[in-house]
Task: inverse folding
């Protein structure tokens, strides 16, 4: 291919688009732009995002307002679309392991696990016990990291930036642990079909315990700074209310569903790995508002610490291999079949529908991110009637993850 | 799911004509039905068996059979099991019914499938573009859509070799952090 200058590249890439679009682009140039005259009205439209501190990730809400009351909201996604599902059909089964964690940036570990579980089910691979415990450890660490991130984001929407700095700084300690035992800080790519990639480094469980003790010792500070703070309590109570009936009708899962009083958790009700051998509670709240949703996450954080403490206690007694033998991954034909795997991520029910036609690449992978419900239809419905300053809080309290929606 | 519930569900499903039920595990049931029987099946599952949560609708393009497969995954909070209902529809014209009246989450999945596969769902509340707002090509998830061929046809490749990259390559490339500067080894033992 001949090299092109930037100007000719742009020229070329635009020339292939249809002429209507080209004209539209010219209309949008400042010298050609003329403000449209509208009949006088008290209603106006506002683009909330895609680049806005009150929006989680690159996502947009187009809201129609009367004064500061929202009349209509339209979710606008696609800013993070990277075509993962199509890409996965063009990569080997093993190569996709590097792709999947990128689908959800703040909580990538459940993605790896859900995909690996699907391949294991298609191949009939049995994962060794030790690998299952290591996977639980990774998942719960990822859940704590994701919740700390969400608290920070939510606090920032009510003007409490200190909580955000604290949350991000404490999450960093968990990322250090990730770096140590997986090699990656954010995208760990630790799971592979059949087990996990690495054994734990020496003394890791001790350092994990220290970090857990530290995070736990910080929680009273978080309570004083954020969860009991009257600024937060008064803003969040009664904001973005969703009844249990609405939540079930709208297909909401995860902490958002539990905040309406229904104790449903995939870890307990459709168990995977060794969650049926672990002791943990499923925290619920009744009021279904932004306050309840955040409080459920706060309680879940404690449950994750409790699970991790059990893992630290039990893991040294479980010996054996960390992965089942798999065929040559570069010439791996997974038997034909289809499977639907489910995992509880920090945002709700995460599912993968994987189809194989017996070839070296997946025939179809469908990712059902939990946010595809509460970041689109639910957010649109819940925003109506709320005040403009509460939109950001509603979105953060739902813990919407746009990359999961766009895939 | 207890054995009693399993029997009861199997008997209930027999009410649908042309149905084929396969139990994959204690919590997973695969059901194959003719396309026109699906709304009746979902109504039965939701109304009489408590499968009130539509987890997802997946679409698979079986281009060799000239068919699309639609899979409706429904979950019951009561008997903790997931039923996956499979149907096949003709690739052309690729039209099916919306199940939004039964399950509201279907609105999102149908919109997504419409965008990615070009299937029209009659009665779905919103078929507007969502992710591929500025896309005017064919539905990209269809098997006949070749992304690489599309790029070669519509865009040109660009040489990219800036000075800083050339310098980096000349120095041996990459960024090497000495072990003592790596983050986790800095911690006090």
Result:
């Amino acid at each position: 291919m001949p090299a092109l200058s930037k100007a000719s590249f742009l020229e070329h890439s635009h020339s292939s688009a249809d002429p209507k679009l080209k004209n539209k682009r010219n209309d949008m140039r400042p010298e050609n732009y003329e403000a449209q005259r509208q009949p006088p009205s008290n209603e106006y439209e506002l683009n909330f995002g895609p680049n806005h501190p009150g929006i989680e990730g690159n996502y947009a809400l187009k809201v129609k307002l009367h004064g500061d009351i929202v009349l209509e909201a339209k979710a606008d996604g696609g800013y993070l679309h990277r075509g993962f599902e199509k890409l996965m059909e063009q990569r080997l089964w093993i190569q996709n392991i590097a792709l999947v964690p990128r689908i959800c940036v703040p909580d990538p570990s459940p993605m790896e696990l859900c995909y690996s579980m699907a391949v294991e089910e298609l191949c009939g691979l049995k994962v060794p016990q030790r690998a299952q415990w290591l996977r639980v450890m990774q998942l719960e660490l990822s859940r704590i990291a994701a919740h700390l991130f969400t608290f920070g984001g939510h606090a920032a929407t009510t003007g409490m930036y200190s909580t955000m700095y604290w949350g991000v700084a404490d999450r960093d300690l968990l990322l250090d642990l990730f770096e140590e035992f997986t090699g990656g800080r954010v995208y760990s790519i630790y799971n592979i079909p059949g087990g996990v990639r690495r054994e734990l480094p020496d003394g890791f469980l001790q350092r994990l315990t220290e970090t857990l003790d530290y995070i736990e010792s910080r929680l009273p500070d978080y309570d004083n700074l954020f969860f009991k703070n009257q600024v937060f309590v008064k803003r969040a109570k009664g904001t973005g209310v969703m009844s249990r009936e609405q939540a079930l009708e709208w297909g909401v899962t995860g902490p958002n569903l539990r905040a309406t009083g229904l104790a449903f958790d995939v870890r307990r009700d459709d168990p995977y790995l060794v969650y049926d051998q672990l002791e943990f509670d499923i925290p619920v709240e009744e009021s279904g508002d932004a306050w309840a949703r955040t409080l459920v996450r706060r309680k879940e954080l404690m449950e994750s610490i409790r699970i991790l403490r059990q893992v630290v206690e039990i893991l040294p007694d479980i010996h054996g291999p960390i992965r089942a033998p798999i065929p040559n991954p570069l010439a791996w034909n997974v038997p034909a079949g289809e499977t639907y795997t489910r995992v509880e991520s920090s945002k709700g029910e995460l599912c993968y529908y994987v189809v194989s036609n017996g070839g070296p690449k997946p025939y179809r992978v469908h990712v059902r991110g939990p946010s595809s419900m509460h970041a689109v239809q639910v957010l649109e419905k819940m925003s109506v009637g709320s005040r403009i300053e509460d939109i950001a809080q509603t979105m953060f309290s739902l813990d919407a993850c746009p990359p999961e929606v766009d895939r | 799911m207890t054995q009693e519930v399993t029997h009861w569900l199997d008997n209930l499903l027999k009410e649908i004509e042309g149905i084929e039920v396969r139990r994959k595990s204690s919590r997973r049931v695969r059901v194959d039905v003719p396309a026109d029987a699906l709304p009746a099946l979902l109504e039965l599952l939701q109304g009489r068996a408590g499968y009130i949560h539509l987890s997802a609708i997946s679409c698979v393009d079986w281009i060799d059979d000239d068919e699309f497969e639609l899979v409706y995954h429904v979950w019951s909070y009561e008997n903790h099991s997931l039923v996956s209902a499979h149907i096949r529809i003709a690739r052309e014209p690729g039209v099916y019914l919306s199940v939004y009246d039964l399950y509201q989450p279907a609105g999102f999945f149908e919109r997504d499938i419409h965008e990615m596969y070009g299937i029209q769902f009659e009665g779905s509340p919103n078929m507007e573009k969502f992710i591929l707002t500025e896309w005017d090509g064919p539905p990209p998830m269809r098997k006949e859509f070749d992304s690489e061929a599309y790029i070669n046809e519509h865009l040109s490749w660009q040489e990219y070799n800036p000075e800083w990259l050339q310098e980096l390559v000349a120095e041996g490339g990459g960024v090497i952090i000495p072990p003592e500067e790596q983050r986790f080894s800095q911690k006090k033992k």
